[in-house]
């Protein structure tokens, strides 16, 4: 699709599809007998049980638990890789069960934008691209190519506001680096600087002290934004800690107040359908289309009188409640929280403490091994439907291979019918038809309009955000703030040892500032041990100025690396101790 990729396809997309014939594909429903997990009174299944029959029994079991313990005792973890239709139907299913305990991510964000959602093509017509906490080279290579084209051929200026050096830095007209973990202060400082340009008397110097950014650097950044005429802000919400994604949205609102500047944004989360998952309501406090659960009148108009209007638990809150025993049952769709969520040991403990864990996935994972029931999912190449890319463009995903398994959307519709839902999803297009009626922003979306090239959905509702003061993250003496970053060719479930891209796999590595390396007595090439949150991970050290003093950058290079275990389950700042091995 030239409108998206300009005729290019990245190496991972071209060669990284061996997972469709992976020996670890889940091809049948399975019941695990795990001694370490809590015993359950659920019935056992014969080995030849059909997936539909198992799913129906499981949704009945969830309803029973919700009836006995309240709807807050069950939850759903969706996937930013699922189609819009799958995500839409799953959120409908669990809200029919009476709960808003629905999420798909381990970071804080809200649907929609307070300004225009730019399509990727609009990068080339922007005077400035402001890149915040984003590394497209590793996270989204097609976006990387679009930015490079805009800079080299269209005269666009690139500004990077980041806590680490990236491959795009050499294309940047201005590079402003902040300390690892201080992005909230950096974003607020820029917003305050722009407010000053608009005549408001606001001092941003107190914010700068926390970031390591000089006053001159910030003044240059403020002036570049103020005089930009047309600016496209690209940011990665998955790389922002705490409530910084909400602060970015407040910054966007501030930029639009400048009368001479046109501003749009692209929330560039790396997962294939992260935007679609948000739009389809896989969040605990918003229904599809960014309708707040607190907007009871709108919720009841769209979803009926019995639709839940109490904000649910986020993904990390569900894990915490499972650990404490308050969450009794969890359904996971194409997600692997054991590896991908913070605090691996605590996640495992929490999942083992559930009365019932159901996992609906296409490949065996660390999470499927803990499940009571595993249901087969089809996934890319076998499924069909729509996804919404980072530019808000809805595109069709076509089926390339046949599967013996029931399609995910059909399986969810079977469960909905079991709960009494009267919708007739005789074919996939019927689901998209319902989405066009129920989801603000998707009213004009249909199969014919999406076609081969896709089409942009309209603006999704965006609630005004008012984040408070930045939560202080006091340094722990002798430790460094941890920053995990994406590596495109990570050795994971999709790219396994048999992949054609296996030659790109890297060993565990870490990057330290020269000043910190000198203080710690470590040198380039040393093997160091990072300790935090009760675990230890070894890594080969590179000493450079990729980040400022006080932080350490560690790429996630494999699932076995277990790097997310160093993070805290509650999302608080992660500090690690470093020693030479």
- The secondary-structure class comes to alpha/beta
Helix content: 25-40%
**How many strand elements?**
23
CATH class of the largest domain: Alpha Beta
Q: Average pLDDT value?
A: 93
Shape: globular
State the helix count.
19
The CATH architecture classification of the largest domain is 3-Layer(aba) Sandwich
Looking at CATH, which topology of the largest domain would you report?
Answer: Rossmann fold
Terminal-residue CA separation: 49 Å
Strand content: 15-25%
Q: Please describe the biggest sheet, giving its number of strands, its sense, and whether it closes into a barrel.
A: 6 strands, mixed
Number of domains: 3
Please give a structural write-up:
- The chain is α/β, with parallel strands linked by helices and about 575 residues long.
- It folds into 3 domains: about 1-30 and about 50-110 and about 280-385 and about 405-425, Rossmann fold; about 115-265, Dimethylsulfoxide Reductase, domain 2 (3-Layer(aba) Sandwich), CATH 3.40.228; about 480-580, Barwin-like endoglucanases (Beta Barrel), CATH 2.40.40.20.
- It is about 30% helix and about 20% strand.
- The strands form 5 sheets. It has a 6-stranded mixed β-sheet with strand order 1-14-13-12-2-3, sandwiched between helices. A 6-stranded parallel β-sheet has the order 4-9-8-5-6-7, with helices on both faces. The protein has a 6-stranded mixed β-barrel with strand order 18-22-19-21-20-23.
- The longest helix is centred in the N-terminal third of the chain and has 19 residues, at about 50-70.
- It is globular, with a radius of gyration of 23 Å.
- The chain starts with a helix and ends with a strand.
- The relative contact order is 0.17.
- The mean pLDDT is about 95.
């Amino acid at each position: 699709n030239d409108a998206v990729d300009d005729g290019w396809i990245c190496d991972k997309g071209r060669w990284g599809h061996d997972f469709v014939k992976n020996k670890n594909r889940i091809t049948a429903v399975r019941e695990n007998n795990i001694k370490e997990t809590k015993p359950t009174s659920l019935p056992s299944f014969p080995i030849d049980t059909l997936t539909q029959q198992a799913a129906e029994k499981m949704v009945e079991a969830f309803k029973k638990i919700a009836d006995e313990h309240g709807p807050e005792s069950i939850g759903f973890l969706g996937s930013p890789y699922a189609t819009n239709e799958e995500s839409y139907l799953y959120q409908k299913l669990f809200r029919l069960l009476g709960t808003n305990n629905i999420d798909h991510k381990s970071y804080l964000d809200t649907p929609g934008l307070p300004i225009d959602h730019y399509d990727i093509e609009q990068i080339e017509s922007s005077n400035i691209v402001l890149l915040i906490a984003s590394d497209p080279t590793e996270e989204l290579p097609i976006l990387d190519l679009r930015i490079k084209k805009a800079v080299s051929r269209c005269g666009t200026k690139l500004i990077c506001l980041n806590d680490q050096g990236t491959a795009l830095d050499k294309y940047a007209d201005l590079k402003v680096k902040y300390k690892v973990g201080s992005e909230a202060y950096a974003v607020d400082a820029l917003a305050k600087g722009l407010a000053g340009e608009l005549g408001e008397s606001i001092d941003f110097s107190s914010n700068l002290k926390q970031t390591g950014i000089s006053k001159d650097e910030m003044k240059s950044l403020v002036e570049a934004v103020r005089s930009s005429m047309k600016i496209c802000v690209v940011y990665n919400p998955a790389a922002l800690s705490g409530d910084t994604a909400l602060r970015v949205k407040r910054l966007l609102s501030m930029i639009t107040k400048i009368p001479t500047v046109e501003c749009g944004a692209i929330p560039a989360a790396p997962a294939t359908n992260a935007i679609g998952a948000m739009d389809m309501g896989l969040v605990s406090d918003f229904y599809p289309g960014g309708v707040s659960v607190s907007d009871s009148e709108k919720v009841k108009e769209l979803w009926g009188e019995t639709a839940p209007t109490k904000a649910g638990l986020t993904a990390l809150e569900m894990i915490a409640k499972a650990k404490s025993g308050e969450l009794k049952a969890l359904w996971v769709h194409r997600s692997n929280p054991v590896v991908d969520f913070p605090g691996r040991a605590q996640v495992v403990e929490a999942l083992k403490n559930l009365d019932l864990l159901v996992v609906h996935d296409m490949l065996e994972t660390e999470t499927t091994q803990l499940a009571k029931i595993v249901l087969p999912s089809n996934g890319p190449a076998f499924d069909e439907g729509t996804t919404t890319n980072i530019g808000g463009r809805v595109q069709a995903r076509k089926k390339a291979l046949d599967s013996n398994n029931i399609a995910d959307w059909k399986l969810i519709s079977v469960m909905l019918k079991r709960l009494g839902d009267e919708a007739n999803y005789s074919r996939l297009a019927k689901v998209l038809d319902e989405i066009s009626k129920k989801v603000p922003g998707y009213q004009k979306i249909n199969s014919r309009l999406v076609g081969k090239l896709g089409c942009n959905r309209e603006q999704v509702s965006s609630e005004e955000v008012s984040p408070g003061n930045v939560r202080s993250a006091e340094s722990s003496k002798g430790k460094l703030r941890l920053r995990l970053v994406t590596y495109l060719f990570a050795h994971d479930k999709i790219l396994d040892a048999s992949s054609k891209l296996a030659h790109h796999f890297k060993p565990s590595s870490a990057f330290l500032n020269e000043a910190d390396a000198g203080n710690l007595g470590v040198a380039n090439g040393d093997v160091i041990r990072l300790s935090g949150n009760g675990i230890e991970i070894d890594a080969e050290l590179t000493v450079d100025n990729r980040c400022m003093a006080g932080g350490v950058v560690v790429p996630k290079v494999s699932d076995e690396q277990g790097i997310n275990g160093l993070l805290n389950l509650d999302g608080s700042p992660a500090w690690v101790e470093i020693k030479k091995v």
